[in-house]
Amino acid sequence: MQYKDLKIAIVDHNSDNIRFLEALLNKQGISHVRSYRSGSAFELSARQNTYDIVFLDNRIDTIKNLYDLVSDLVSNGTLPSTTRLVYMAQRQSAFDYACEYPFHSNQLLEVPYTMQDLVTILDEHTLQVKEFKHAYHCIENKKYKSALFKLKELRNQEYPNYLKKARNQLLVNLLLKLGHYTLAKKLLLPLTERNIQWAKWSLFHVNYELRDFEACKAFLSETQTRQDYPIRVFYWQIYIAFQTDNRELATAQVLAFPVEDMSPSMFRLSLMVLHVSDELDAVDNLIKRKERVYQEDPALATLLCALSIKLKLLETLNSQSKAKPDDLKVRQLELKALLTHSASNIQKYCPEEFNMMFVMMMLVEGKANEASSKLLQLSQTSSDPSAIIIIAYLFHLAGEMDHAKEMLFNAHRALGKQHRNSHYVLAGLMHREIFSKIYKEEATQQQAYIHFASKLFDSGEFKDTIKMCSKALKSGINDKALNDLLLRSTKEAGLKEQDYLHYLTPKKTFQTVVS
């Protein structure tokens, strides 16, 4: 098989690794190989060039590691669905930081590897793209139902196991994309009985959509799942714990996990869990433990410093109305000194964090109008759901309620496009917390559900409209216009009543004893 037309990218901080892989690829007749020493350099190239296969280093301890970068590039459509992502790593590695993308093949190349390992990847990729080219064409044009039909036509084809796996994964993810969760479950159950891991993870996501949290928790508790995927288990257990109103379990998860194995995104999630649970001593302890891990890396040490100051700013803003004037003045001076002392490093390594903290400091000093002006600027450029949620909350504190509500809706939309990784879990939990602060009363929450549903429908996001309408109905609203909107959304999405009944099921209360 000829590979000369393949376009390959290598992203690795180690020059020796790059040269070794380039030499092997050249021996296979591949001349279009581009190498990048940093994720940012690859990101610039990916926006201008299309790559068939991307080989990636698996380091996690950078402010924005390659797993985070790839998720962004997949989410915003920079990497086409035919791009294969290959993480080069040891078997017992951080590979499970990579989330499961709907249509991109995502695999591990165990280090050290041989020429034959490489040839296998090239063979599998070339044949997969050739066999499923019509389905991929439909996916790129967002014609998911057409792609599903194209793949169904191939179900009787005699394929090698890796192609059967790729076809089944695409079928399942297309069903999920279209909202056919019950059909996806029927397809997955026979595969999970054979202990196929990708199928078990897909079933986990299906059960999550079906609100079967008991099934989700049972899978995350399996010994093999915990051993092979400790990272995913960590953040999903936290998410399910919050969904079932069991913050004690989420806190226990954070305190039990080895802090040295936490990536920056996991560390942010851990701080958030402890902060909203008012475990302030645990927050300080976690930061001190992480300081020892990050002390040799100036960028990560600066990130840690920024997050610590940011939490102090948030604590002050949350308690500002109850503080005595003299105590508040002392606190203002302390925070100003902390921020001034670290300003140059934070601006250098974490400019987005600095901009947000700068606005928080304005609010602490009572400069609401200046803070609002700066927030308006930030709201025009922010695309990260977590950042948008913080902007919404700061607008709320500044008294700009219309802007706060608009940004919270924008964050909800951004979350719908986010891949299911630790960033999604962090942003999802933040959205829950800030939503309850902005919409404090049940009546205002119900109004928000209706408002969100209407705006989602107008923007053509019919599956999300169904979810929001169902949430509104489940909250006790009995409104003809809302029911009509639900029916219209169902029709536009090509779904039937049985496809969304699970969203209307009354919420159960779960109690879990944490040792």
Automatic annotation (TrEMBL):
**Domain Response regulatory positions:** 7-126
Q: Which residues carry this modification: 4-aspartylphosphate?
A: 57
Q: Which UniProt keywords apply?
A: Phosphoprotein
GO BP annotations listed: phosphorelay signal transduction system
Write down what this protein is called. Response regulatory domain-containing protein
Give the organism the record lists. Answer: Pseudoalteromonas luteoviolacea DSM 6061
